[in-house]
Every structure is written in C-alpha cells, then in structure tokens.
Amino acid sequence: MKLQSIEIQGFKSFKDKIKLQFNKPICAIVGPNGSGKSNISDAIRWVLGEQSVKSLRGSKMEDVIFSGTNKYKPLNFAQVSLNFDNIEKWIPVEYSEVNITRRVFRTGESEYYINKKPCRLKDIREIFMDTGIGKEGYSIIGQGRIDEILSSKSEDRRFIFEEASGISKYKYKKEESLKK
Ligand code: ATP
Ligand code: MG
What is the CATH number of the domain that holds 86? Predict the structure, then answer.
C-alpha cells in the first residue's frame, strides 16, 4: 500500500488546488520556514480524521480553512484527498485504488468520502485500523513525537505496539460489541 498522491484545496496556506504526486519510494518536501511543509502533514492527519484543533496548530476547526491574505479573500471551505494504491488489499475494500476525502465548510460539519461516496468518520477510522495509517498510527511522526514515545506512559507506548502488531482492530471490535 502506498500513498500515491494528495490533493489539497483551501486548506491552511493552500489557496489553490494542488496535487502532490509521490512517484518515488522516498520523497522529501523541502522549503523555507513558513512555506507550508507542516501544513501538508497536518492535511494528511486531518483527512484521516484528526479532530484535535490543538494538534492541527489552530484554536478552532475553521482555522484549517484558507483565511485570506491582503491580496486574496478567505475561502469558504477546505478539502483534502489522499489517493492510495491498494493492489495488495491492505485496506479492506474491493478497490485497487482508494480515495479518501474530507471537506469542511465555515458553517460547520465535516463531510467524508471513500472513493467519492459519502461516509462517516467512523468508516474511515475502521478501514485504516491496523494498517498503521490512522491519525494515531505510527506512519506520521511529527516533530518531538519520538521523544514523546520514549518518555510517555507505558500505557501510551502499549497503544503504539498494539496498532503496529495488528491487535487494535480486535480491541476496537470488542469495545463496539460491548456497547450494543
Ligand atoms: P517550518 O520550516 O518553520 O517548520 P513550514 O514549512 O512547516 O515551516 P507551515 O507551518 O506548514 O510552515 O506553514 C505556516 C504558514 O501557513 C504560515 O505562514 C501561516 O500563516 C500559514 N497558514 C496557516 N493556517 C493558515 C490559514 N488558515 N490560512 C492561510 N494561511 C495559513
Ligand atoms: Mg514545519
């Protein structure tokens, strides 16, 4: 499974629609301070369902929408899509390509889509569970996270190992069935 490309429109500093294509196994994003590198990793976590505005470096969810400059007006919505190749079916859906999209308007709620079909955040969480890709997964390691992992409580470290070893899905299913 590979993240093939990401499309960003109206998210943080990305006013116009851009598409980043990751054609090589290892890609680096470089640029001056404040040019938007971290905004790209925020965008990835956001599509995967990040709900914590603090971890997205804002004070309210609206802060992820392009807020305008002295030349450009603020936009009314932000949208980010991730395109994964799923030939090996790591993501448990029948498609060999999976597109995940999240859109938010200034007026409120987020909309989520899997391959252009509307879905719930829960559906996105579930299909990425145990792939290591979820917003809590270990595939996105932000600045300072390594220190956090090494020094955090043993229960927090255990969570990371549970996700990596593929048992968090079963824990989740058990919790869900106990709710019923
Ligand atoms: P560094 O190298 O310092 O880590 P960076 O490339 O990671 O920099 P980011 O933190 O991704 O930079 O980008 C910060 C920029 O994004 C700031 O200029 C900030 O004004 C802009 N920005 C953040 N949110 C918005 C928004 N909602 N609308 C417009 N611009 C925004
Ligand atoms: Mg940065």
Answer: 3.40.50.300
Tokens of 79: 């949208």
Examine the predicted complex and report whether its ipTM is higher than 0.85. Answer: yes
Tell the residue nearest (CA) to atom 9 of ligand 1. Answer: 36
CA distance 85 to 95: 9
Q: What total number of domains does the chain contain?
A: 1
Residue 99: name the closest of 78, 81, 87 by CA: 81
Q: What is the DSSP letter of 97?
A: E
User: Whole-model pTM above 0.90?
Assistant: no
Is residue 29 in some structural domain?
A: yes
Q: Which residue has the tokens 């390509």?
A: 97
Ligand 1 residue neighbourhood (C-beta within 6 Å): 12-13, 31, 33-39, 63, 65-67
- Consecutive sets of 10 residues in the chain, 180 residues long: mean pLDDT of each? 94 98 94 95 91 87 96 97 94 93 92 96 88 72 75 80 79 89
CB atoms within 10 A of CB 84: 21
Q: Where is 130: in which H helix or E strand? A: none
Termini Cα distance of the chain? 33
Selection from 73, 101, 107 nearest residue 9 by Cα: 101
Residue-range definition of the domain harbouring residue 23: 2-119
Q: Which three-class secondary structure state does DSSP give residue 121?
A: helix
